[in-house]
Design the sequence.
């Protein structure tokens, strides 16, 4: 775990319990643990290209369906890609 934290530039806080996220990444984590922002729920449809969605869905297919998301391309899971990304 220490190697991963070093790679990500994440360090333990002074009490030794938990980790400190560098300020430059703070914006990425500000909404973690909060309720979904309703206006952003479908933002991916404008932000991701069709090619990006087509690449992402086979990796996260099962998780998307289990969380109630609609898959656009109806691609089935790709176990090799899931394994590559550490999902299975």
Sequence:
């Amino acid at each position: 775990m220490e190697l991963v934290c070093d790679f990500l530039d994440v360090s333990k806080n002074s009490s030794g319990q938990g980790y400190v996220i560098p300020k430059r990444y703070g914006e990425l984590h500000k909404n973690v643990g909060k309720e979904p922002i309703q206006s952003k729920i479908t933002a991916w449809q404008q932000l991701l290209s069709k090619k990006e969605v087509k690449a992402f869905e086979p990796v996260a297919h099962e998780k998307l369906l289990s969380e109630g998301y609609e898959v656009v391309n109806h691609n089935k899971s790709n176990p090799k890609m899931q394994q590559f990304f550490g999902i299975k």
Summary: The chain has a mean pLDDT of 78. The chain has two domains: 1-33, 40-88. The beta strands are 11-12, 19-20. Helices lie at 2-8, 26-29, 44-47, 50-66, 79-84.
